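Project outcomes to date are best conveyed with an example. Our students and postdoctoral researchers have been running inverse folding experiments weekly, and each run begins with a structure described purely in tokens. The record below, which covers 439 residues, was selected by the lab manager from last quarter's runs and is presented without edits.
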């Protein structure tokens, strides 16, 4: 009797229709077609097959369905012709609007917030990332009290508490979600304490810290890999990176620094996610240098930069007080006849921007030199090391920036070196035989 192993089958592809509601009078730094294209990318990141797209002009909002009656019927016909199981509405929907549209179109309806949350849920890998996404999803769910996510039903039996006979289903759902949120917040608090301890431990070493921020798919992870020789997942896909990654980075003079790759930002990033990822993005607040990576080959580059700055502002990051460098990435995709103009614009920017290609490596040496300049804000000091203090000299080269060196005939060495106050204190404690003087 022959036995056959079960065959792993791919889940069926779900067709979808993507609708961008173009609200008249809503200020936006980009056009409706560009926003629709981004929504299509989000749907594809969720493995949905986009069969039809539509920009739906809204002259006024309809409380029950967002769209007017005629537009609801038009979109319903489009969904039917496309045989779509999902309709993606690139806007925020109230619970009532979502339910009414599902009835009218006879398919699953998901709004922009729900779409981004579902992508994050699939991509988070670390325990902290999963906790943060789960907290964001439950906060979103609590406002709707409909079972958008099947994982809530699976967890129902795990709480061990049930309501009395007079408790309605909605009250039960509200209480269960509130209990779960409280539990998640406690778990996250423990994770954050651990992260704070790790950050404090890193501060005891005189390493500069560099954080990458930017719009999703701007090429941060590719640049991260290029600069640190790491192998972080880098794909041409929205939100390919969710969990923060730290690696050692060598500056031009051989000194090490710590670089962190963070989650990409996006326009109208759900409030729930901004709050949930606040602890993770504290790496940005603590960094000595922040690299704002832009996809300079995109027509939406300027608008995307504004969105990134808006999110950083929500995280209480004082942009004026930070050492921020704009990195104009994807230089290899800029047409040859536009490169000179672009390079001139980069030189005239204040502060000057650094054009690079993370794919080819062009401009990366200039970027590292610029990072080293931003790190070396401390005035240089003169360090005199007597004969036999080779370890002290090597330490200075590793942890500071040596600006000048004079070797004495007797074997002593005098160095002009820029050190952070923390590194200078460690050097004096570790090598008491060396003499340090202000220049």
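After processing, the design step wrote out the following sequence:
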């Amino acid at each position: 009797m022959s036995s056959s192993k079960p065959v792993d089958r791919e889940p069926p592809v779900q067709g979808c229709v993507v609708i961008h509601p173009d609200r008249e009078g809503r200020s936006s730094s980009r056009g409706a077609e560009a926003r629709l294209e981004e929504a299509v990318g989000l749907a594809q990141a969720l493995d949905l097959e986009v069969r039809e797209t539509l920009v739906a002009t809204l002259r006024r909002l309809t409380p029950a369905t967002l769209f007017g009656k005629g537009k609801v019927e038009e979109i319903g016909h489009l969904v039917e012709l496309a045989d779509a199981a999902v309709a993606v509405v690139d806007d925020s929907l109230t619970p009532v609007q979502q339910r009414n549209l599902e009835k009218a179109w006879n398919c699953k309806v998901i709004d922009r917030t729900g779409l981004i949350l579902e992508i994050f849920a699939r991509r988070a890998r670390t325990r902290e990332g999963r906790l943060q996404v789960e907290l964001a999803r439950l906060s979103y769910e609590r406002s709707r009290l409909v079972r958008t996510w099947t994982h809530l039903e699976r967890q129902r039996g795990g709480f061990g508490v049930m309501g009395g006979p007079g408790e309605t289903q909605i009250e039960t759902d509200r209480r269960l979600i509130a209990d779960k949120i409280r539990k998640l917040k406690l778990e996250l608090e423990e994770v954050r304490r651990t992260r704070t301890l790790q950050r404090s431990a890193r501060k005891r070493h005189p390493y500069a810290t560099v954080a990458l921020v930017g719009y999703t798919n701007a090429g941060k992870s590719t640049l991260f890999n290029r600069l640190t020789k790491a192998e972080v997942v880098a794909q041409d896909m929205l939100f390919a990176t969710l969990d923060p990654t730290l690696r050692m980075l060598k500056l031009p003079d051989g000194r090490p620094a710590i670089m962190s790759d963070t989650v990409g930002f996006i326009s109208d990033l759900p409030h729930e996610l901004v709050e949930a990822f606040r602890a993770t993005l504290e790496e940005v607040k603590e960094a000595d240098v922040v690299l704002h990576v832009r996809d300079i080959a995109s027509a939406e580059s300027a608008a995307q930069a504004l969105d990134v700055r808006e999110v950083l502002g929500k995280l209480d990051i004082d942009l004026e007080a930070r050492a921020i460098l704009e990195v104009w990435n994807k230089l290899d995709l800029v047409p040859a006849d536009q490169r000179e103009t672009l390079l001139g614009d980069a030189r005239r920017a204040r502060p000057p921007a650094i054009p690079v290609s993370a794919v080819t490596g062009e401009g990366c040496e200039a970027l590292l030199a610029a990072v080293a300049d931003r790190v070396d804000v401390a005035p240089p000091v003169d360090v005199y090391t007597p004969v036999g203090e080779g370890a002290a000299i090597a330490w200075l080269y590793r942890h500071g920036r040596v600006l000048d060196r004079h070797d004495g005939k007797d074997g002593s060495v005098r160095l002009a070196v820029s050190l952070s106050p923390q590194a200078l204190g460690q050097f004096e404690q570790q090598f008491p035989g060396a003499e340090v003087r202000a220049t």
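The chain has four domains: 14-113, 124-199, 206-375, 381-438. The longest strand covers residues 48-58. The training component of this project remains on track.
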